[in-house]
Automatic annotation (TrEMBL):
Keywords: Repeat, RNA-binding. This is Non-POU domain-containing octamer-binding protein. Its main location: nucleus. CDD domains: NOPS_p54nrb. Residues 405-414 have a biased composition (Low complexity). It is found in: Nucleus speckle. The keyword RNA-binding applies. It comes from the Eukaryota. Residues 1-12, 24-41 have a biased composition (Polar residues).
Length: 444
């Protein structure tokens, strides 16, 4: 990676091989400053071209470690050194130990900055630029085969804000059962670690819990260069001879074979453990599948019993409703019969009263009619018998006669007909009381 340093790897529009304009100006029209500045300070990057759609910015993955800094450097100096790569969101410097941290916008920009500035002289000292370790990263193992990056982020997002969640796959794109979850803060990672360590955290319907551990930070890109190795006495002893094959029959060959046998035994032990673990996993899966079926059958039985209980309760409610309806119908029928009986009795009583009233009024009406009829006949007879009598005297005698006839006692059919010669009797020349009896008729 050292061959990628210097101005030859600048990604800006101005490159050293670009032709410059007359008058000592470059393509940007800027005058070259005679001061001691690195070529990176006069160049800028088009940051928009290094930003992926939807990519999170200023994450922990874009945080760089800068070592071997000269004494007396400030945050402003470090920010000026990385000014070409955009505005930084975090700058920290430990002046006593000569290192610092800086956070850039995206991961790609941080990779470019690391490739260009690593081992670059800065104020007489070559600086070291590496990615800072992620203190809030977790390693997730025993992942089911159908867990994706999105599901992993959704599952572990319940413990805090996530910067990145990735399911590790092999070269064929098949899941390896491992994943990486990176949080924005250490408290969130610690919370997720505590929660998942205490209980069995399940990501899918298959009840296989995942294993969460702190992630081991490894630099698998830069590695260990020769200049970083401490050259002590053990280093000198190890480097006395170059790489070679041990010759058969020699001391080196004998112990090399013994080391090889030990590694073979270790390999066999690992294979045996893996085989036993695989058999145990298959057995557990079979038992779990059988238990799942049994659990489903139990749930179905419980659901059937619940449905039967609901059906029985509904039948009871229906029977109670039918009984209430029958009772209501019986009460209505009884009420109807009672009203009909009352109506019948009322009609009978009314008819009886009408009959009694008709019987009581009939004799009185008949007697009144007969009296009026007899009174009319008596007046005619008096007029005939008296003949020529006229005047007031005859009128007064007729009135007296009519009065005596109406007021005097007699039988029921002839009012005013009393006994012979009495006060209420007829005058002389008229029939007497003996002529009116129950079996006799009046004669004129």
């Amino acid at each position: 990676m050292q061959g990628n340093r210097g101005p030859q790897q600048n990604h800006g529009p101005n490159r050293p091989e670009d032709p410059k304009k007359p008058g000592g100006t470059n393509t940007n029209g800027q005058q070259p400053e005679p001061s001691e500045q690195t070529p990176n300070e006069a160049l800028t990057l088009d940051l928009q071209s290094f930003r992926k759609p939807g990519e999170k910015t200023f994450t922990q993955r874009s945080r760089l470690f800068v070592g071997n800094l000269p004494t007396g450097i400030t945050e402003a100096d470090l920010e000026k050194l990385f000014a070409k790569y955009g505005k930084a969101s975090e700058i920290f410097i430990n002046k006593d130990r000569g290192f610092g941290f800086i956070r850039l916008e995206t991961r790609i920009i941080a990779e470019i900055a690391r490739a260009e500035l690593d081992d670059t002289p800065f104020r007489g000292r070559p600086i070291r630029v590496r990615f800072a370790t992620h203190g809030a990263a977790l390693s997730v193992k025993n992942l089911p085969d159908f867990v994706s990056n999105e599901l992993l982020e959704e599952a572990f997002g319940a413990f805090g804000q996530i910067e990145r969640a990735v399911v590790i796959v092999d070269d064929r794109g098949r899941p390896t059962g491992k994943g990486i979850v990176e949080y924005t803060s250490k408290p969130a990672a610690r919370k997720a670690l505590d929660k998942c360590s205490d209980g069995a955290y399940l990501l899918t319907a298959f009840p296989r819990p995942v294993t969460v551990e702190p992630m081991d930070q490894c630099d698998d890109e830069e590695g260990l260069s020769e200049k970083l190795i401490v050259k002590n006495q053990q280093y000198q002893k190890e480097r006395e001879q170059p790489p070679r094959f041990a010759q058969p029959g020699s001391f080196e060959y004998e112990y090399a074979m013994r080391w090889k046998a030990l590694m073979e035994m270790e390999k066999q032990q690992y294979e045996m453990v893996d085989r036993n673990m695989k058999e145990a996993q298959e057995k557990l899966e079979a038992e779990m599948e059988a238990a799942r079926h049994e659990h489903q059958v139990m749930l179905m039985r419980q659901d059937l019993l619940r449905r039967q209980e609901e059906l029985r309760r509904m039948e009871e409610l229906h029977s109670q409703e039918v009984q209430k309806r029958k009772q209501a119908e019986l009460r209505q029928e009884e009420e109807r019969r009672r009203r009909e009986e009352e109506m019948r009795m009322r009609n009978e009583e009314m008819m009886k009263r009408q009959q009694e009233g008709f019987r009581g009024n009939f004799p009185e009406n008949r007697e009144q009619e007969m009296r009026m009829h007899m009174g009319n006949h008596g007046m005619a007879m008096n007029r005939n018998s008296l003949g020529g009598n006229s005047g007031p005297a005859s009128t007064a005698g007729m009135a007296a006669e009519n009065t005596s006839m109406m007021a005097g006692p007699g039988n029921n059919n002839m009012p005013g007909g009393g006994g012979g010669g009495g006060a209420g009797g007829f005058p002389r020349g008229l029939p007497g009381a003996g002529d009116y009896g129950p079996n006799k008729q009046r004669r004129f």
